[in-house]
Structures are given as C-alpha cells and as structure tokens.
Write a structure and sequence with these properties.
With 472 residues, the chain is α+β, with helices and mostly antiparallel strands. It is built from 15 helices and eight strands. Strands 2-3-4-5-1-6-8-7 form an eight-stranded antiparallel sheet. The radius of gyration is 28 Å and the shape is globular.
Length: 472
C-alpha cells in the first residue's frame, strides 16, 4: 500500500512539473531538461527560494491576489524603504500572513518600494553581495555615507529628526513650516559640531541617532554604514525620495592588514579626473550661457585641486601602510576634490579607506565610482594599475617657471606670480566668509591646474596609439 501511495505522489509531482504531459513518452534531451527545470522550480516554490517576477508581484497586490512564499520573501527584503516604522511593521505582518492590502497600504508600497525594486532588476546584482579585498574573507569591504544638508532645501529631514529641546510629542504637533523656522533659528546661533537634533522613532533604521552642525551651518548625518554597496544604494534611493538630495560623500573601507599598492596613484588619478570633468562641464555651460563663470570648481571654498605636497603625503602614507608603519594624519588634504586615502576617525582602529568627495548630489555617479573601486580591490587585491600616476607632479609654484621655460613664453614670471597672489587673496577672503579653511592647493596656485605637465601624464599610456601621436 505504501509503495502504491509513494508512486502516486511521485506521479503527481512529475505531472505538476510540466504543462505538457507528452514528456512522459518524449525522451529527447530538451524535453528532459525542461522537466528538470520545472521540477526544480516547483521545489524552490515550496521552500520559498524560486526566482520571482517583480512586476507580477505588484500586479498581484493591485488585484488582491495571493503571493507565494518566494514572492513574499522577496518583497519583504524591500520593506525597509518604507519611511514610517509603524506602517512598515504593519504591512510586513500582513504580507507574512498573505492578507490583502487596503488602498492606503498599496499606495505606500507603490511610493516607497515598487520603483526601487523595478529599477534594481536592471542593475548588477553583484553589488548586493559582500565583497572582500583579493577575495579574502578576513578583509571584508564595507561602505559608509555622509550626507550634508541645507535645511531650506531638505526640510523633510525634520520629519525624521527633532530639536533636542522638544519632546517627540511636541515636535510631532508642529507643521513642517514651524519645524523649519525653529530649526533654522537654532542652527544660526549654534557652535560648530553641536548635536542639535535627535532621531525620531519613525526614522529609517540606518540613519544616525543625531545630526550635527558643520562650521558653515549645514546639517550633517554621518556614520551611515553598510556591509554591501547594494544596501548603500537602496538607502540613497530612499533618502532621495523621502528627504531630497544633500551633498554626499562615500567611503570604501577595509582592514589595514593588507598592502594596497597604487593607493596614492589612485588618489592622483581621481583628483585629475574630477577636476577635468568639472572643467569640461563648466565650458559647456559657458557655451550655452556667456554670463556663466567657468572653472568655478578651481576656487571652491572647501574642495580644492590636489597640491604637490599632498601628493607626496599620500605616497608616504601608502608606503607606511605597506611597511606596517605609522599612518600620518592627512589634515586638510582630506578636503581635496576627488578621493582621499585615510585612516583614523571616523573609521575604527585597524581600518583604512577611500573617501569619495567629488560627487556632490550625484548619488548615481557616487555608487558607480565606489562600485568600480570595489571591483578593482576584490579582483586584483590592490590598485597597482594606477601606480604610475603617483609620480605625476601636482600643483605648486614651480609650474610657472616650468611651462614658461618649456614653451619659451615671453612673460615676466614675477608679474604672473603677483597676479596669482592677488587672485589667491580674493579667493581666501571669500573662503573665510563661508567659515572654511582651504584644503588642496593654496589659493594662489589653483589657477595653475592647466599648467601641469599633461604631455607626460601617465594617462597617455592608456590611450590608443592614434591619439598618443597627436601629443608627440
């Protein structure tokens, strides 16, 4: 009897694996393979591990149809995107018990979850797994974010944080306009690095417990840390939708017990790339609007082009790490427009990382940049392909004489230097009005960026021979 029952169950299982009963007498390899795939998928559905169609999930929700176990598990991975903790938990319970959602709950799913899920389907799924330097599990890569906000541009952050002199209930009673007015007043009279704001219970879990005030009166959220780049990307999408875009910096961090040859060269390459990219964009804007001031990025009050002294400092730190020696404090070099290589705060002891500072509000380019670097670290274990760039001289006063002599320009070096000093004083005065001290090249040297030795830049070795000949 048992044999008959088992045989019947197996027959039912096989019949369930295919919509084409002819497979029972068709023994072609393609038919057998089709049956195998169908059976495997059926087993996965039973245990909640089948591949799912995200679009089908949202159609089912709209039509009040039941989700299978795999679909419920898939959807619940994205519920953290829902802003309200209470709504997130309530909807999660409903999905777990496979109950239909009401119209309000469906609208929440559409607002916070659907767009993110469907966009993710076209992305490289490797960013959702943990990465390791050189594939070594003792060298995990993690990702950090800092987001700097102007409250006038992103008042909705005040739905997730309250001023410390208000209780949660008192803050909840205020309109967004009242919250903004009160916050701006307190920020105006607060000291730099004061922690004026505390997190509300309904705030996103990944947000820090407090926000602090920068010297130039912006509000900053930092120490937002993730194990995978995919999680960081999802958070940025959530933040964009629920709060808006602030100026963001990203960190690629790993334990310091590994040699990363080429780290200094990577810093140099990224600094040049970032400045050239912005100069090109500035020129495009000038062509469209002659009233626009080009090359504003060279006189940014905080993020300057890399100087020669800073290039040498990054080489010292790269070699110190390789030789297990003391890592030097990079000081103002960390505010270079580009990527900086650093240790110490905000990282834990025993960790180093690369801070990407050049993307401002472009969240998509930031994720791409960190993804590219992570792939290099994982695949090769270092950044050695950038090694040659560490020898490319950066900005200092010697560029004036070098280019005048090289091209035999009839120009008084002293007059040019006096002009640049005057220009530097104007830039520095503007900087102090913003409450900043400069990082990167000295103000009087910033306009020397175009005078660097581009003819001998290592990037030419990466170009096709036909392009290289144009420079010979």
């Amino acid at each position: 009897m048992k044999r008959i029952l088992i045989s019947f169950i197996l027959l039912q299982f096989l019949l369930s694996c295919s919509n084409q009963p002819k497979f029972l007498i068709d023994r072609t390899p393609s038919s057998v393979e089709e049956v195998k795939r169908s059976c495997i998928n059926l087993v996965k559905i039973i245990f909640g591990n089948a591949e799912v169609d995200p679009l089908a999930i949202f159609n089912k929700i709209d039509n009040d149809e039941k989700l299978n176990l795999s679909e419920r598990k898939f959807l619940k991975k994205y519920l953290y995107l829902i802003e309200s903790t209470d709504e997130r938990l309530f909807i999660s319970k409903k999905i777990s018990s496979n109950k239909s959602l009401d119209n309000h709950e469906k609208s929440i799913i559409r607002k916070f979850v659907e767009d993110a899920v469907l966009k993710d389907q076209s992305l490289n799924k490797k960013i959702y797994r943990r990465r390791y330097v050189a594939g070594r599990t003792d060298l995990p890569i993690s990702y950090g974010l800092e987001i700097e906000l102007l409250l006038n541009e992103t008042p909705d952050i005040l739905k997730q944080y309250r001023l410390n002199n208000y209780s949660e209930d008192e803050w909840a009673q205020l309109s967004i306009e009242e919250k903004l007015s009160e916050a701006l007043e307190q920020v105006k009279v607060s000291d730099a690095y004061s922690e004026l704001f505390s997190k509300m219970p309904s705030a996103h879990d990944s947000l820090p417990n407090t926000l602090f005030i920068e010297g130039h009166k912006t509000v900053e959220a930092n120490n937002i840390v993730f194990n995978t780049l995919g999680e960081a990307q999802d958070f940025l999408k959530y933040f964009d939708k629920s709060v808006g875009r602030g100026s963001v910096q990203g960190h690629v961090v790993y334990p310091d017990k590994v040699e990363i040859d080429g780290a200094a060269g990577f810093v140099v390459f990224e600094a040049d790339y970032a400045q050239l990219h912005n100069l090109e964009r500035g020129y495009d804007r000038l062509l469209k609007n002659p009233e626009t001031t080009p090359a504003n990025n060279l006189i940014h009050h905080a993020l300057g082009p890399l100087s020669e002294d800073e290039r040498l400092l990054y080489i010292v730190n790269q070699d110190a790490l390789i030789n297990q020696e003391q890592f030097n404090n990079i000081g103002k070099a960390k505010t270079v427009y580009g990527v900086n290589f650093r240790a110490g705060k905000p990282y834990e002891d025993g960790y180093v990382g690369f801070e990407h500072r050049q993307y401002h509000k472009n969240y998509e380019r930031l994720v791409d940049g960190m993804d590219y670097q992570s792939r290099e670290l994982e695949k090769k274990g270092d950044l050695s392909r950038y090694k040659d760039f560490e020898d490319a001289p950066q900005i200092d006063s010697s560029l004036i004489s070098a280019r005048i002599d090289e091209y035999q320009i009839d120009l008084d070096k002293d007059d040019l230097e006096l002009f640049l000093i005057s220009a530097g004083e104007v830039i520095e005065k503007k900087s102090k009005e913003m409450g900043f001290t400069f990082g990167g090249a000295q103000p009087e040297h910033r306009f020397l960026f175009p005078l660097k030795d581009w003819i001998n830049n290592p990037i030419l070795n990466e170009m096709p021979e036909s392009i290289r000949k144009e420079y010979e």
